[in-house]
Amino acid sequence: MTQTVLDKLGGEDALKELVEHFYDLVESTPEGAQIVRLHMDGHGLAATRKQQFNFLCGFFGGRQYYKELHGHMNVKLIHEHIPIMQKDAEDWLLLMDRALDDLGHSGPHVDRLRATLRRVALVLVNDGAVVGADSKRLARL
User: Fold this and answer.
1) pLDDT digits over 10-56, tens only?
2) How many Cα atoms within 13 Å fall on the side-chain side of residue 81?
3) In whole angstroms, what is the distance from residue 32 CA to residue 23 CA?
4) 137 contacts 41 by C-beta, under 8 angstroms
């Protein structure tokens, strides 16, 4: 039986630890400041922590909690209302890399994971050209 990325990370408990540590970094570092602002326009960081775990669990080959709740796993659709700049994506990736390192995750599966997360994060960059975005949100950029 082939192990999933989730298995290789240590299962749901290890993923929960990763997500919590990642968002602790988001909330406590300069690189996370804009990510916090973007999430505060939505459901806030407490909800985001839960949804990130739900999404990543399925994305990493485990139970599809996010899909069970929302009916899909389309990252573009999930983020379409958010103005995401290149720097936002790079900051997100930097902090996820730091969280992975801090928790001792390494090896070829983590290298592949980082490459996959990079591709996904860069696909979400829309340079603020968000359909239906209000002028207040765009004025912050």
Assistant:
1) 999 999 999 999 999 999 999 999 999 988 876 788 999 999 999 99
2) 6
3) 9
4) yes
